[in-house]
Design brief:
The chain has 118 residues and is of the alpha/beta class. It has 5 helices and 5 strands, in the order αβαβαβαβαβ. It has a 5-stranded parallel sheet with strand order 1-5-4-2-3. Strand 2 (45-48), helix 3 and strand 3 (64-65) form a beta-alpha-beta unit.
Length: 118
């Protein structure tokens, strides 16, 4: 019984830790993304984390391609002082990118819900 209580406590503590350390990411729709792209008053970095092949097949004007696989090595190309808008095909890789950038100390992270596909 004591072992079960310890295991439950560990799971609870781990869950709380994950929630507290998860990157703070604002989710936006494609419609909201259009508004962000049109807003020239606020400086933002727009990063597409799809592969180069995916990026070349369907580009969104204003986005720079830094594939997720190379993002950790190329964070110097992303402005730390401005909000970072991330996109991929479905929203999954861009959330992974948000985690990478959050660990590197990036502040305002924005992910396009559903990615380019929706």
């Amino acid at each position: 019984m004591e072992t079960i209580l310890i295991l439950v406590a560990v799971v609870v503590v781990f869950t709380i830790y994950k929630k507290l350390t998860a990157p703070k990411v604002t989710m936006v729709t494609k419609t909201e993304l259009t508004g962000l792209l049109q807003d020239k008053k606020t400086k933002r970095s727009y990063i597409d984390v799809r592969t180069a092949e995916e990026f070349n097949q369907k580009k969104i004007k204003g986005f720079k391609n830094i594939p997720l696989q190379s993002l950790s090595m190329r964070t110097s190309e992303v402005d730390k002082s401005s909000p970072v808008v991330l996109i991929c095909a479905s929203g999954s890789r861009s959330m992974q990118a948000a985690r990478i950038l959050a660990k590197q100390g990036y502040g305002e992270l924005i992910n396009v819900r559903g990615g380019i596909g929706h």
